[in-house]
Amino acid sequence: MAQLIEISDPDDPRLGDYRDLRDVQLRRSLEAEHGLFIAEGEKVVRRAVEAGFAPRSFLMAPRWLDGLAEVLATTEAPCYVLSEDLAEEVTGFHVHRGALASLHRQPLAPLEQVLTGARSVLVLEDVVDHTNVGAIFRSGAALGFDAVLLSPRCADPLYRRSIKVAMGAVFTMPWTRLPDWAEALPTLTAAGFTTVALTLAPDATPIEQAVADVDRLALVLGSEGPGLSARWQASADRRAIIEMREGIDSLNVAAATAVACYVAARRPGAHR
């Protein structure tokens, strides 16, 4: 069972994993150096532990101890107990959900393993906003997609904000980073997937038509600003568009993903 340790000093070195959680650059270097990530909120912390991620420690206000008692009973990792005001001083924001956990990262699975048995996957090129990445994971998981593949420059799915928005879907949805950006889409085509890129290209067809006869689908989405690179647009097997009312800007990438996943999940044979 976790050891409960009361903390009264915000500078206590044992709280290092939780310091300045809003400083993205600091968190990137610290989390990469120590191979950790932070989960926030009772539900998300529970889902992370249930998914097999080993805790390094917990940080929570006293009123959250009972709610996570069964999780704390499964580990010997320390649980630092401190007031919510003190937690805010340490983390840099109001921890209104009351519970945080620092957990060990796991090695990324090889691409071949992630694709095994998959019929529908999401492929993201340079989606750099953590909120969008989390929302995409949540939509994909909710609508029956089997995995997410990320280009090297995509935001970290295990960054605290991504996890929070995804409500823990990043723990159960298989994902990995693509080892070769340039040949990513041809590699998926060779593996038996039809790559369908969401784009405003002149030859794009409505998403309903583009995916209707697809057996194994790789739905390809681009970055928040410029969208897909010219290389990825050209190397995709098909180009698709979400038809919209004239004069309206295109959807945010997270919203576009949700619409496209909904359509793709209803294609014949999507869930064989």
Q: What is the CATH class designation of the largest domain?
A: Alpha Beta
Number of strands: 12
User: In order across it, which strands form the biggest sheet?
Assistant: 8-7-6-11-9-12-10
Distance from N terminus to C terminus (CA atoms, Å) equals 43 Å
Structural class: alpha/beta
Q: Give the overall form.
A: elongated
- The CATH superfamily of the largest domain is known as SPOUT methyltransferase, trefoil knot domain
H and E order: EHEHEHEHEHEHEHHEHEEHEHEH
Can you tell me the CATH topology of the largest domain? Answer: Alpha/beta knot
Sheet having the most strands: 7 strands, parallel
Domain module tally: 2
Radius of gyration: 20 Å
The proportion of residues forming helix, as a percent range, comes to: 25-40%
The CATH architecture of the largest domain would be 3-Layer(aba) Sandwich
| SS field, number of helical segments | 12
Mean pLDDT: 93
State the low-pLDDT regions, or none.
none
Content of β-strand: 15-25%
